[in-house]
Amino acid sequence: MQQAPKTLREILNQPAVWERSLAELEQMDLSALTAGHSPLQVEWVFIGCGTSYYLAQAAAASFTVLLQQPTRALPASEILLQPQLSFPRGARRYFPVLISRSGHTSEVLKVAEYLKQEGVEFLAVTCDGRELAEMTPRVLRLPVDESSTVMTSSFTSMLLGLQYMAAWFAKDGAFLAALNALPEALEKLLKRYVPAVQAFAQRRFDDFVFLGQGPLFAIACETALKVMESSSSYAQYFHTLEFRHGPKSVASPATLIGGLLSESGYATEEPVLLEMKKLGAAIYAVTNSASPQLRETADLLIELDVPVPELARTVLFVVWGQLLGSYHGLSKGLDPDNPTNLTRVVTL
After folding, report:
1. Which of 16, 133, 208, 266 could form a disulfide with 129 if both were Cys (CB 3.0 to 4.6 A apart)?
2. pLDDT in tens, 30-39
3. Going by C-beta distance under 8 Å and a sequence separation of 6 or more, which residues neighbour residue 289?
4. SUPFAM superfamilies from the xrefs (predicted)?
5. Which residues does 30 contact at the CB level (< 8 Å), separation at least 6?
6. How far is CA 293 from the centre of its chain?
């Protein structure tokens, strides 16, 4: 029997990776990593490229919600090309958090060099470490051994790590406990929904659109990227309610519109997805608890049904886009382990 692509194996192994990452986080000295730069006293700026930029967006949202403090996310290139726009009060007035799975991403390393020249301390968040980990004594390194080209368990584990750090600063023990419940929750969800995602991924669409609000907007962006990377398909992302303002013109039977529906905004977000179904599009939804109408209408529905704080569920929304992209790529005869035109690390 032919072995599944390593990308799929790594996606499906995320419960074990999360459990290992959370155990290591409990042993880390987070106070030493961030000494003198508490997010309660200085604005943190999360920085990455590609998937790591979307991770930065989700992390910034998590810090803002949990700590009620302003944070931002920026692509590394923006700092290199527009430093005054990126750091309007001067780089020393912020605490940058540089995110790179490999620690070898060219733009991130160039930002690190710029910060060192400016005398700015920063935190590195990484899995492999490499050059980035050598440029700062402040390194949050997650124990993720990921060989696939596209980021899967590295994304979710680094997001868990940053959410863990935010909850630690907030002294929110209930949130930390909720994070520790996620590996078991995902294990159960994978057993329930993987066959449905695999079967649905055989369908052909000309256009994929993914919608989300708040912290889930970053996950909608990452879902679109995973579908593009793994299946060489055209995919877009929008804030859910913004999709009505022009973009809904693409809705048709050849379009899949996916909604990552929040609990707090469900009553407002669900009607957008149902409207797109009436316009002829296929619809896909991930939510914690769906209405009877959505259960009857959705072409693919993932109900998480995990009783933890809404923000703690964010990482559970990620996995289904990873699976959809990989299975859809396989249905087109592509190899998720060798996505078109891509390499594991972007170096310039």
Report:
1. 133
2. 999 999 999 9
3. 263, 303, 304, 305
4. SIS domain
5. 165, 168
6. 28
Closest CA to 273 of 289, 287, 257, 286: 257
Q: Which helix (H) or strand (E) holds 303?
A: strand 300-303
161 contacts 150 by C-beta, under 8 angstroms: no
Q: How open is the CA angle 321-229-209, to the nearest 5 degrees?
A: 50
Q: Does domain 6-180 have CATH number 3.10.25.10?
A: no
What six digits make up the tokens of 36?
């003198």
How far is it, in rounded angstroms, from Cα 238 to Cα 233?
17
236-247 core/surface letters (b: 16 or more CB in 10 A; e: else) = bbbebeebeeee
Q: Using 50, 70 and 90 to split pLDDT, how confident is the model at 66?
A: very high
pTM over 0.85: yes
Provide, rounded to the nearest whole percent, the portion of the chain with pLDDT above 90. 91
Question: Would you kindly state where each structural domain of the chain is located, as residue ranges?
Answer: 6-180, 184-331
Token code pair at residue 144: 């993720």
4: helix, strand or coil? coil
CATH classification for the domain delimited by 184-331, as one of 3.30.2000.30, 3.90.980.10, 1.10.3720.10, 3.40.50.10490: 3.40.50.10490
Residue 210, classed as helix, strand or coil, is: strand
